[in-house]
Amino acid sequence: MRCCNPEDWSVAFPAVRAILTLCCALAALPGAAFAAGPDVIVGQLSGVQRFGRVGDITAYAVGTISCNIGDTNLLWDADTSLHPVIAQNLYRLRDGRFEQIGMSWLKHAFGSTNESGLCGTCIDPDNSQLLGPGCHDPYQAGLNGNQFLLGPRSEVNAFTGVFPYPFGGPPAPATIGRRIQVHDADLRPSLNAGARYFLEGQYVTPDDAQSGNGFNNASHQEAMVAEPSTDVFTVSLTGSTVQQAPAIFAWQFSDPSVVVVAVNVPGDGRLYLAAKATDLGTGFWSYEYALHNLNCDRSVGSFSVPLDANAAAHSIGFHDVDYHSGEPYDLADWPSSRAGGALSWQTVPYAVNANANALRWGTLYNFRFVSNAPPIPNANISLGLFKPGPATSVSVMIVGPSPAPVDCDDNSVPDYVEIQGNPSLDCDLNGNLDACDPDCDSNGTPDACDIAAVPMRDCNTNGRLDVCEIEQGSGAPGGPFFCTSACDPDCNFNGRPDTCDIDSGFSADCNANGVPDECDVALSMSPDCNLNLIPDECEIAAGSPAPGGPFFCMSGCDPDCNVNGIPDACDISSNEDPDCDFNGTPDSCDIAGNPMLDCNEDGVIDVCTASDCNGNMIADECEFPACPGILGGDMDCSGVTNLNDLPSFVEAVLNGTISCPADANKDGAVNGLDVQAFIDAL
User: How far apart are CA 458 and CA 467, in angstroms?
Assistant: First the structure.
C-alpha cells in the first residue's frame, strides 16, 4: 500500500485511512522525498466568494493553493498551453446520497509566486513561469472566479493534460457565467435538513499528466451553507483540506459502510465508483451508486448492474450535474432499461451525438434503485466507455444485488416461480413473497395488503399500520399496539398517531410544533390561563413583541393591551391587572390611554377609590381647590352636612389632608379655619 495514494484509500478500513491521511501530511513536510517528475496537487482550498444570483442559480468560486510535490519544475507558462487549468466542483451529502450539485469552467493559471511552507521547503526557480519543487502558489477565490480567465472543460483532455490555447467558448453570461453554478433548491437550508457540503479543486496540466502524476490532483474540503437573508445563500469552508483525494471519498469518510473502488481505464484515466446497499427492513434493499470521472477522456456512456430478470426493481433514479455557459454538451438524463439480466442506464451513443451527456472528467453521476435482490459484495458492474477505443467497457467488482433468482424464504424454489404458480402468495403484487413482506401485527397478512383492504388503518399514508406506530402496551382504544422503538406519539391516547389527528383537523396545532394543542396544555408545554384548551401563544396576535413569544394568532385574537404575553381576560381574572371599572380592559391600559383617569398617579382609576361628590368622574382631590358643586363639610357626599361627617372632617383637619369637602370655608386650604364653617354648615 502506497502512502497518499487514493487508489489505496478506496479499499482501506477507517483506521488505515486515518494513517494514510497522516502520511499525506508528513509527505508535505520539509525534507520529505519528492515524487518523480513534476507533480501538482491542491495543497489547500482557501476561501469561497459569492458572485450573485440570476433566476434560481447562484455563482461561486473557491480559492486554491497549488503545491508541486514532485522533484522537477512544473511548467506555468501563461502564453502557451503549458500551464495548469483548475476545475472547481461542489457536492452535497444528504439522506445517504452523495451528489454533485455545481461545477465551474476551468481557471487558466498565469504565473506562480513560488512560496515556501505549505508544501515543504521551496526550491525557488526564480521564474514565475515555473513552480519549483516544494513550492506553492495561491489563487484566491476572486481570481478563480474571474470570467476572463475561465475556459471550457470540453477543450481539455484531462488524462494527457493537452488543450488548445488561447481557449475558446462564447462570451460569459453576466454574473453567474463560467463560475460554479448551484440551484437554490440544492442549497436552501429548509429543503436540505442535515445536508453536508464539500468543495473540490482539481489541477490538470500537461507535464504533470505526462509524468504519470495525474491521479492525485484533486483535493476536497467540507463547506457550510447558510441563508442569512431570503434567497441569499452563502458557502464557507470548514475543517481542513483533504489533500490528493477527490470529494467522492467524503462519502466514505462520513459513512464507513460505503465502498469506493478505483477503476483504471486501459490507456486512459481513472474513475471512482462508490456504492452502498441499505436494508430497508421490508424485504427490499436500496442500492445507491456514485460514479466519479477523475480524468478519463474516453468518458462513460453506460452503467449496468446485474439483476435477475424476475427480481423486483422500483424507485429507479439518475442524477447528474448541469453543464452551462455554452459548453456544447447535451443535458438529457440517462434513461434506464432492463434486459439481458441487467438494469442499465445509457446516454445517446457517441456515433449518434458526440456531445451527448456522457460522464466526462471532473463530474459525478448517480444511479439508484430498490430491489428485493439481496446484496453481495462482488457484483460485476459494467461501465460502458463513451468515446471509441480498443475496449468498449470496463468492469468493477463492488457491492450490488445478487444476480441469482430471489429466494427469500430459502426453500430452493425461486420466488417468482412460486408466485407464478400461486399468485395469492403475493397479495400486494410487489414481486416479493408475502411471507417475506413486513407483517408488523403478525396477523399473517402483509401490512401493505392490510392497508390496501382498509386504507384508514394507515392514517398518515406512510405504508405502516397505525397500530405498529403507537407504543406497545398503550391503553388507547384500537389496540393492541406493536411499536417497540421510534414510535409515533399519541399524546391524547385516542389510538391514532398525533400527526394524523393534526393532518385530519381532529386536533388543532396552532403553534405548529407537531403536538396537538390539547396536549400542549395538558402536558404543561404551553400555558392556558383561560382554560379553553388553546395555548395562550395562539390567542395573542402574531408578531407581538411581548415576552413568551413567538405568538401565532392571525385573526380573532385575544387582546393583550399591556403587552405582557398574557390575554387581558386572564390578567383581570387573576387580579394581576385589575379592572375596577368592569369595562373588560385592565386598568393599566385604561390609564395608559387616558392618563386623566388617574389624576393622582397612584396606578388606580380614580373613580374606583377616590370620592367624587359632584359625580363628574373626576376625583375630588384632583379638583382641589376649585371643587365645583361640592358642599363644604359633606365628607360622605350625602348631599347634606351633618354629624355623620364629623369624624372624617376632624381627621382631615388634623392631618391637613387635601379634600374638597374638608375645605369648608373654600379658602383652598384644610386647617383650623374650616372648623367654624363646618359648624355653620351643621
Answer: 9
